[in-house]
Amino acid sequence: MAVNVYATSVTSDNLSRHDMLVWINESLQMNLTKIEMLCTGAVYCQFMDMLFPNSVPLKKVKFGAKLEHEYIHNFKLLQVGFKKMGVDKIIPVDKLVKGKFQD
């Protein structure tokens, strides 16, 4: 079971885009070149599976997603994984699938 954690600007340091990409690439042995590539939802699913094995059915994740409806599919899988692990967090899918880096 997961523990809900709330991060605010008071409790967390902001990472630069570069630092975040380095961390993601090292953690998942990937080679992402832009933070906007997270908009597919696949990386979030991989992290969820890494932290909580079998919480997200990776076989159903569309890793080669190119279209918004495929991104939404991946985020729905992530949301199911959140529920399965008791994570009480709404994923702002509409914003994330746009591929615009936000705070």
UniProtKB/TrEMBL annotation:
Top-level taxon of the source organism: Eukaryota
GO cellular component, one term: microtubule
GO molecular function terms listed in the Swiss-Prot or TrEMBL record: microtubule binding
Keywords: Cell cycle, Cell division, Cytoplasm, Cytoskeleton, Microtubule, Mitosis
Matching InterPro entries: CH_dom, CH_dom_sf, MAPRE
Gene Ontology biological-process annotations: cell division
Region forming the signal peptide: none
Ranges where the Calponin-homology (CH) domain occurs: 14-103
Record's subcellular location: Cytoplasm, Cytoskeleton
Major location (coarse): cytoplasm
Family: Belongs to the MAPRE family.
Name of this chain's protein: Microtubule-associated protein RP/EB family member 1
